[in-house]
Amino acid sequence: MSVNKILERLETHRKTSANQWVAVCPSHDDRSPSLHIKEKEDGRILIHCKAGCGANEILDAMGLRYGDLFPDTGENHRGFQRIRREVLDDYVVEIWNADRKLGRTPSRDEKERYRQALMNGGQPNGYIDELLEQTK
Q1: Does 69 map to a domain?
Q2: What's the CA gap between 18 and 124, in Å, rounded?
């Protein structure tokens, strides 16, 4: 999908520099633009909400999927292979636990995703704790 098709789905946006835009985030009540959008040279589209919305929340609010952030070239993006569902569920549980340790309050969507991950058999794998230890 092109960046222009993504920008069309947003209420307001403005270009900030070459291949970069800022927009009102569709997944929360945004008074000033907090969603940053960047189109990379290879056609990938990066999204980041400075207010803390997750990519899933943003994409859901726009009616999009992760695959829509990649160009429609039919090219195999080997460096961006999909993570197996069970591994992804493990990471969801792991991130949930790390967020709780930090006192972060989960959104309704995050609670639902965590519940689904547990139902799919997601389990903590220790990866986040390992990363946190390396930063100390």
Answers
A1: yes
A2: 41
